[in-house]
Each structure stands twice: as C-alpha cells, then as structure tokens.
Write a sequence for this structure.
C-alpha cells in the first residue's frame, strides 16, 4: 500500500522530486517497466555492477539486489557501469531538478560549460562556493557537477559512436573531451571496451563533408508546432520548410532536419572543421531537443496555466546563429511576423553573401556594421539599434555566447533595445528557460482571455519556465 505522505503513481509521472517518491511507487514502476518513468530514475544492480533504465528488457533483478538513483551521473559516481542492452545514454532527458539554482546549473553543464570551465567558476557564477554547489547537487541529483559533466560526455560519445562518417577523434571533440587520450581512457574504464570496439561497425567509414546524425527528442514533442513556428518566420533565400523537413543555409554550407518518427530526427549539416561539438549542440538547442517538457508542463498547469495541457510538447525554438536571432528580434519590434520576414528578406539580399546555388548566407556583424541607416529600410531608431548591435559584436565588445545575465544587461544598454527585445533574444538565442517578453501585446491579450490577473503577477508563479509559458500563450492567441 502506498504511503499517503508520499507522491502517488499518477503524481510521480509528473514529479521532479525523486526524494519524495515512495519506494513502493518506484518499485512498481521498475517491475512493470513503466515507460513514463524512463529517464526519471535509474536502477543499479548490485550483483552485476551495472545501471539500467527502468524499462530495461533484461531479466528482472530481485528487489534486494537493486539500488535506485535519481540520475545516471549518480549511478556512475557510485561505481556502476551503463547497461549495454537498454543503453542509458539514449534515455529521455531527465526531469528538471526541484530547485531553480540546480536547474540552471544543470542546463549549463548540459550545454558543455564544464568542458571548458571549472566547477568553482560555475559556483561563482551563482554567487555560492564550490562546496555549497557540490552539496546542493548531491542532495538533488545524487552526484557532483563534475560527475554530471563526465556522464554527459560519456553518453554523448556513446551516441556518436553509432553515427557513420565520423572519425574517433571527431567524436572525442564533439562529446567535449579535452583530448583523444582522455576519451579513450574513460570509455575503456566505463564500458570495458575501446571506442573502436564500441562502434556498431568498426570498419573505416568513407569520409564526407557532410555530418549525418540522429537526435532523440524528449517526449512529448509537438513537431508540427515547431515546424510551423520555423515556417512562419523563414527568411527567403536562407530557410525553407517542405513537408516534414526544415533546411537552411549556414556559413559552411547547409543544415537539414527531417523527422524520422515521433522521437527521432535526422540531421545533416556541412562539416565545420574544428567546431563539430559546437554545431552539434547548436542543432539540439535549435530543436530544444532535451527539454524535460513533461515536468515543465506539469509545473505550469499546477501554477494556473491550464492551457498547457491542451497542447503538450510545445518547445522554445532556438536558433542556428545568435547574432542572426538578435537581428531578427530588433527587426521584429512592433511589427507583425510577416512584416518582419519581408524586411529581413530585403536585408539579406542587400547585405548578405549570395552563393553559387542562388541562396544567401545571412549578413555577418561586420557587413551590417557598415550599413547606413537609410539602407535598412526601417524606422531610423530601429535601424540605429541594429547597426549598434552589429558594431558591438563585430568589434568584440559584445559576446552573445557569454554569461546570460551579462549579455542581457549589455543588450539593454544599447540604444533602442528594451525588455521585449532582450526577453525574446534570451528565450531563443541565449537559452534562458525563464525569459519572457512580458510586455508583448499578443501575450497580454492571450492572458486576458484566461484571467483578470495582471500577466506580470501571474508570471511569477511560472518561474523558472516562463519561456515555455510564453510559447503556450502565443499558440493560444493564434
């Protein structure tokens, strides 16, 4: 019988608080191989030293021989190896932690932040000590930030080993390892096999200028909405949406995304020498592929945004290039989506680089920094904002890949850029899940159809997922 002081089975499917779950609920989920719990906890088997997803098809271990963990990193830190049958590296994105600070830190780690910076610097970013950050992670995730980062790299490498056409050195780089030697050593330690042995087909693959990958999407995922969002904002000469496919030009060549099924998309993009890891992560951000959307939506519904339940799986579409998205945001000030699209098309044809295939590369900061106000064919103040942004980026005074809060403040300091523009850029380019352009007229009007409460006041209850609330309100309004 389930203890009423704990979360029940139905509540547990939308809970991010592992510690509050009744052991009987978890045991029921494990024994029944309940797919709703896939990625929400992990089962370590004491007799084999292996940890599995709760849906693992292997022979069911006895209850006294298992130990449950809130995260794959926690199981790995305790000395368990990932199962080669259920492949924990392919589990859906885990639930968002129950504390906002840990959630934000986890998002940075998942983006590869600790591949280049130290845990002490991560802690300093949040104004706490490394010891305190480690303690919070142990309480919520069951592992330290370093443990989480190591597991992320290992899982990314294991997935990429299933991809044709990538050398082992490229995989090491893309997964975030500092060197091939470290990559080789850690895979041998964890999997007991060399990277070459772990490949499905160890024979050398033909090299290609095009990377072909598959990306799994956390569920649910509203692909129709994501594709429609991208279609309505596509820039002629840059982007194209056909059927179930999105494609666009890139500085290196092209990017193409096709849906294979409800949970997997195929991605092709032209090889960018030395930046495979960054390109791979940027595609995932464009798709918002790893969002713990079931948890996000449950929290928003609990916080009074009932419309979320009507359209599950909405994502916050990211971008391929942060500067391009910032330009889109400025052009989109106080105009319709269609109007902004028209202006952006003109800017691309006037300042972009035409290619041999008749398409264009989006103008660089250097190209737009040389523009004259009159050439941009938009209100003078808006044109001046765009030129100021371009000059700041071109001269290196503004790094759009830097600290989110610092970037937001720098953007606000530019002429003609206010909270709406910064909120939109933070949502889609900076990856801030709590950003929201509160003074957006469509958001305000959508909320008025649902409540008399002021939007700003209601939005406090939606933290730290206000970007997702905005997507649902926009969809509701349309």
């Amino acid at each position: 019988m389930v203890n009423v002081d704990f979360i029940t089975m139905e509540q547990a499917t939308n809970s991010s608080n592992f510690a509050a779950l009744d052991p009987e609920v978890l045991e029921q989920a494990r024994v029944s191989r309940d797919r709703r719990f896939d990625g929400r906890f992990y089962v370590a088997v004491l007799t084999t030293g292996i940890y599995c997803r709760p849906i693992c098809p292997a022979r069911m271990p006895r209850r006294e021989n298992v130990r449950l963990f809130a995260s794959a990193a926690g199981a790995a830190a305790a000395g368990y190896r990932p199962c080669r049958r259920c492949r924990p590296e392919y589990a859906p994105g885990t639930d968002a932690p129950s504390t906002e600070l840990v959630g934000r830190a986890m998002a940075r780690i998942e983006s590869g932040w600790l591949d280049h910076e130290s845990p002490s610097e991560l802690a300093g970013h949040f104004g706490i000590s490394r010891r305190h950050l480690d303690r919070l992670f142990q309480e919520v995730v069951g592992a330290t930030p370093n443990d989480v980062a190591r597991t992320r790299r290992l899982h990314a490498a294991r997935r990429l080993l299933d991809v044709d056409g990538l050398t082992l050195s490229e995989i090491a780089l893309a997964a975030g390892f500092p060197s091939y030697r470290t990559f080789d050593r850690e895979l041998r330690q964890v999997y007991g096999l060399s990277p070459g042995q772990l490949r499905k087909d160890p024979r050398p693959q033909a090299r290609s200028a095009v990377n072909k990958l598959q990306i799994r999407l956390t569920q649910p995922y509203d692909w129709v909405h994501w594709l429609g969002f991208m279609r309505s904002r596509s820039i002629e000469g840059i982007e194209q949406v056909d059927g179930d496919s999105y494609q666009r030009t890139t500085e290196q060549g092209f990017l193409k995304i096709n849906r294979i099924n409800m949970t997997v998309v195929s991605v092709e993009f032209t090889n960018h020498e030395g930046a495979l890891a960054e390109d791979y992560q940027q595609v995932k951000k464009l798709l918002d592929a790893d969002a713990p959307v079931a948890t996000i939506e449950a929290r928003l519904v609990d916080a009074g945004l009932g419309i979320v339940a009507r359209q599950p799986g909405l994502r916050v579409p990211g971008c391929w290039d942060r500067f391009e998205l910032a330009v889109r945001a400025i052009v989109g000030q106080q105009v319709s989506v269609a109007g902004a699209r028209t202006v952006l098309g003109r800017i691309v044809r006037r300042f972009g680089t035409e290619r041999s295939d008749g398409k264009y590369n989006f103008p660089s900061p250097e190209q737009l920094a040389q523009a004259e106000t009159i050439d941009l064919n938009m209100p003078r103040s808006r044109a001046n904002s765009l030129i100021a942004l371009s000059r700041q980026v071109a001269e290196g005074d503004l790094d759009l890949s830097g600290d989110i809060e610092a970037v937001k403040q720098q953007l606000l300091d530019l002429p003609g850029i206010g909270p709406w523009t910064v909120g939109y850029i933070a949502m889609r380019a900076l990856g801030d899940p709590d950003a929201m352009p509160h003074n957006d007229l469509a958001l305000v009007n959508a909320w008025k159809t649902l409540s008399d409460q002021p939007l700003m006041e209601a939005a406090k209850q939606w933290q730290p997922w206000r970007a997702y609330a905005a997507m649902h309100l926009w969809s509701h309004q349309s």
